[in-house]
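Listing S7. Sequence submitted for prediction.
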Amino acid sequence: MSDSGEGSGKGKLILGIDLGTSHTAVMSNRGDKVLLRSVVGYPKDVIGLKLLGRPYVVGDEAFDMRSYLDLRYPLQDGVLSETGERDQLVARHLLAHVIQMVKPQPNDEIIAVIGVPARATGANKGLLLKMAQEVLHTALVVSEPFMVGYGMNKLVNSIVIDIGAGTTDICALKGTVPMPEDQVTLSKAGNYVDERLQTVLLERHPELQMNLNIACSIKEAFSFVGPTPGPVVADLRAAGKPVRVDVTDAVKSACEALLPEIVESVEILLRTFQPEYQPIALKNIIAAGGGSRIRGLGTYLKDALRPYGEAEITCVSDPTFDGCRGALRLAEELPPQYWRQLGDVAGS
C-alpha cells in the first residue's frame, strides 16, 4: 500500500487478524471487533448478477446468498491457495473487505499482525504478504498458536493446541520465537470432523438429506469426546420430510478421530523441553480455536497424557477472538522495527 505522506493528520490503525479457513476474525486498536466467513461469492449467471447488483459479495452475506452464487473459499487448510490467478483474486477481495470492515480513515497508517498455520510454507507467507502490501502499510505474519500464547502471557514452558477448521496447529513455547521443530501442523481439524460425521451418518442412514453445512451445524451444537453426556438427537430431513435421528455415536466417533494425532504431537513436543521443564509444560497446555469448544476435550487430553505426569488443560475463554486479540496485543506492544525478529514482514 503506497504511503500518502507523513502529515500531522495521519493516524495509526493497528490490527490483529486471524485468517481462517472457515472464518476470519479481526480486532483493532480502536475497539472494532469483526468476525466473518472466509468466503467470496460471485453470481453464477446473469440472473444472479441482477439479484446481487454487484460483481461479488464477501462473508456471511455471500453464504446466505449461496443458492445463486459461486462460493469461493480462498484459504485452504488455513493458507492462501497458490493455484492460479483466480484464487489470488478471490483472496484479494477477501483481504480488502476485511480491512474495510474496521473502518480505516483516508490518512491512516495501517499496520497488522496476521496469523497463519504453524508450519505454513515460505511461499504461502510470501503470497499473503504480497497481497497485504496492497491494503496495509506494514504487515507481519506469525504462527497462530504463538499469537494465542502471546495474548495469554504463556510464552515460556507451555504448549498451545489451536484446533481450527482447516488445520490443527500445535506449538511448544520456550521463551523464544518458535522454531520449525517446535511446531506441528495437522490436516485433521474441524472440516475433517464435518466430513467424517457426514460419512458416518449417511452410512447408517442413507435416506438422509445431508451435506457438509448440516454436518457442521450438528458438530457445533453437540460436539463431545469421552463419556456420552446422554442421547444426542438432531432434527434432519429425509426425502423432504422432517425426521429425528440419534447422532450420539456418530458425533462422538467423528470428534474423537481428531485426538490420536493431537496427543502424539503433544508427546513429541513435550520431549523437546529440557527435562526439568517438562512437568511445568505439562501443566501449561492451552486448547484454542473452535475445536476447544468440544465438550470433554480437556479431560480426554489429561487422561491420554497421564503416562507423562499430571497434565492441566486450559481451554481459552473466547476461541473466536483470542487469536487475533493476541496478534493485536503483539502489534501494539512491539514496534514494527523489531518485527523481523519474529517472522516474515512486508512494508516499512
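Caption to Listing S7: primary sequence and predicted C-alpha cells for the chain studied. The longest strand covers residues 109-116. The chain has three domains: 12-148+321-347, 149-188+258-315, 190-256.
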